[in-house]
Structure formats: structure tokens, C-alpha cells
Amino acid sequence: MEKKYKDYIIRFSENTEKFEAIDKKEGVIYTHSSYKQVEQYIDKLLKKGFKRIPVIYDDYGKYRQGEVTSAIPEEKDVWIVNNEGERCKKHITYSPVYKDNEKNWKILSAIEQKNKEIEKLQKEIGELEKQFEQVTYKELGIPE
Predict the structure, then answer these.
(1) pTM exceeds 0.85, yes or no
(2) Which of 35, 56, 66, 110 could be cross-linked to 80 through a Cys-Cys bond (beta carbons 3.0 to 4.6 Å apart)?
(3) Which residue has the higher pLDDT, 58 or 75?
(4) Average pLDDT for residues 127-131, to the nearest whole number?
(5) How many Cβ atoms sit within 10 Å of the Cβ of residue 82?
């Protein structure tokens, strides 16, 4: 299902099972399980001069979803509200903020898979390290 709404397209994604608001230039800019909610989001965008967009960002090693609510261009900072309603400021030069879209979620999924592989390898290395024969004080001729 795909429907034009104002200057946007709203479609239902069978992959995510959510409705998507699509901007012709930026692609998917918002997803939600409710069609009406997507329409309301588009209405909010058109009322404001600043364009709020859904994002993915790194919050101390954990990727989170949120929405850019404002920007400070001269400082290259953006304010983000995450899905729990918490606000944070990110300097986009040093702490990149990514578009919340299907491509980036696939990349994030691949990163998480690699992290699981790394964790497994670290455990295997730890088990191997336990098998080392250690030098003792006795072998060095030092009384214990």
C-alpha cells in the first residue's frame, strides 16, 4: 500500500510491519505502526521551519533511536529526544548521528553480529590463556 500525503508518500513496509513517511530527497524519514500517527508527524513537519528527523545514535556503546528536535549549526550540535523521552545533545562531528532507515538498521544488525563473534572469540582466548604453564618462584630459585 502506498499513498501520497501532501508532499510525502506513506507506505506500509512488510519488512518492518510499520508505515513509513517517505521524503523524495531523503527517503524514509519516519516510521510508526499507526498510519494516522505518520500523517500527524508529516503535519508537524510542515508547520515548523526546522525539519525533525528520526535518527539512530550511539549512547555510550548502545545504539538508540530518537528524533533530532533542534540544531545549533554554528556549534555543529543537535538536540535529540530518544524514544523514552530523554534529551541529549550530540556534536555531530565527533559523535555521528545516523538516519533511521532500513539500510542503517541492516548495518547495525551486522555490527551487533560481529560484536557477538568478538565476544565469543574473547572467551575462547581467555580459556586458552588459562592453559599456559606459568613460571613459579620455586623454578626461579626464590623461596615462597
Answers:
(1) no
(2) 66
(3) 58
(4) 96
(5) 15
Residue 139 C-alpha from the chain's centroid: 54
pLDDT of residue 11: 93
Biggest alpha carbon–alpha carbon distance for the chain = 85
DSSP 144: -
Q: Residues with Cβ < 8 Å from 26, sequence gap 6 or more? A: 53, 99
- Give residue 26's pLDDT: 67
Cell of 82: 530518544
> What is the C-alpha separation between 71 and 68, in angstroms, rounded?
8
CA distance 122 to 130: 12
Q: What is the pLDDT of residue 77?
A: 83
C-alpha cell at 83: 524514544
Q: In whole angstroms, how far apart are CA 37 and each of 44, 103, 143?
A: 11, 23, 76
Question: Burial, 100: exposed, middle or buried (Cβ in 10 Å; 0-12, 13-18, 19+)?
Answer: buried
